[in-house]
Design goal:
Elements: E1 2-6, H1 9-19, E2 23-27, H2 31-36, E3 44-47, E4 67-71, H3 79-86, E5 89-91, H4 96-103, H5 107-115, E6 122-125, E7 137-141, E8 151-154, H6 157-166, E9 172-176, E10 181-190, E11 193-204, E12 216-221, H7 231-248, E13 253-261, E14 267-273, H8 280-289, H9 295-304, E15 311-315, E16 321-326, E17 331-335, E18 340-345, E19 348-353, E20 364-369, E21 376-377, E22 382-388, H10 403-415, E23 417-420
Parallel strand pairs: 2-3, 2-4, 4-5
Antiparallel strand pairs: 1-15, 6-9, 7-8, 7-9, 10-11, 10-13, 11-12, 12-16, 13-14, 16-22, 17-21, 17-23, 18-19, 18-20, 20-22
Length: about 425
Amino acid sequence: MLAMSGVPLDEGARLLRRHAPELTWQDRSPFLGAVAAPAIPWLRFAHRDHRREEAVALPANPPAPRGLAVSFAPEDGIGAHAWAASSGLRLLAAEAAAAATAADKITSLELFARAGADTPRTWVVEEELPAAATVPLVVQRRQNNLTGKGTRLVTSPGQLDDVLREWSGEALRVSSHVDGVPVTVSGCVTRQGTVVSALSHQLVGVPALTPYWGAHCGNQLIAEHDLPAGVASRCREVCAAVGDQLARLGFLGAFGLDLLVTPDAAVLAIEINPRFQTVVSLVQAQERAAGLLPTLGTHVLASLLPSVAVEEVRTACLKLSQLVVTADRTGVVRDGITSGVHRLANGRPQRCGDGDLIALRPGEALLWAHAHPGDPVRPGEELVLLQLPGHAASVRANPELTAEARTWIRAVRHALVIDDV
């Protein structure tokens, strides 16, 4: 079972119809909006990949807003804001200064302290490293949004010297390395409190998927019994407390909180993602199954209304997971994957139609193409999001992928053709 909170689905949909009758989800892929769409059938999708756009500028004389828009990572440059303004849409995004404070790996430490959330032993280093900071250590740049490439594990003095030399001149967050299970709690800050939704096991630095130790590789939904007794409740408490501190900064809307569950069942706060996360796709499936409004809709209502009705529920935990298949070399995509439900035929993904994440059957996978023919790619860049109707890995500190997950990863990689440049 799983405890979570949210807006009752019927009431939430009624409020959205009234206050957001023109609503657009804007991203490079419809994967997150697609899970919300059965509950918000008038939701539109606009395909834009701002990470591949250059020389973006806000329009000088934008048309008056006639609808609303929500974007995956609006704080990642001004692309989402420029697109919404030129399209005559009001972008519902968190206040920029509040989001920047929360996302910053250094300023977020004070926010954790005010929330009463424990963290690994941590130092902020601008010049010399304190003598107490001995390897193994985790070194982070203060801005490390979306990719995880700005996080390094150092296990020897030589590695530490190399990282400090590479990132010299920057203020760095340096933390003692702690073994544990990475857990993400998805939440949404409203004007009357924090909605605490589903928990997931975050898969990080999986060698079969990424060359980067700290890179996000996927998630899988987890129930309370997947963690030591009392830990899931503590994760929810920390999320609520952090959300309340975000509200004090003026933040409203969806966010994710990354935690670490140690072998002795301690819960340590690691970082805040003040935006939608990829895992929200799975979270919204869990919310719909529990009779709750998907997070995308809750984010909209939190942005527009002074209050929304929220209820606590206990529900069966869906066994859903997703993996991020990334490029392993520099090149240009020649043959890609077509988004949709697939089954394996002779070791290759074969599309068998469109489908809902909740309705996936054993042996199927829902694939979302995030790189398309003609796109240049580099190692670690996302190619395909692979969603499965079951867990993809063991729930532990150093997870092992299931045989089914490994088979699907191989099949997706073989189906993709990347020409060297």
